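Regression test case RT-17, inverse folding.

Input:
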């Protein structure tokens, strides 16, 4: 049951980060490297979708 809550919280937080990056206009600097902002947005979206998918699988298996 704790994993289910953890996946739900992680999906909400990562989706909020994804939404936050939608307002960032230019390239993102990470570890001193300039990265295209669309790669960063896509990565956060994939993390969010993966977490919500895991949450839904656990919720379905409990029924």
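Golden output:
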């Amino acid at each position: 049951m704790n994993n289910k809550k953890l996946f739900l919280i992680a999906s909400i937080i990562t989706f909020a980060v994804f939404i936050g990056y939608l307002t960032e206009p230019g390239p993102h600097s990470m570890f001193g490297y300039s990265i295209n902002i669309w790669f960063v947005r896509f990565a956060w979206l994939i993390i969010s979708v993966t977490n919500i998918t895991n949450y839904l699988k656990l919720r379905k298996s409990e029924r």
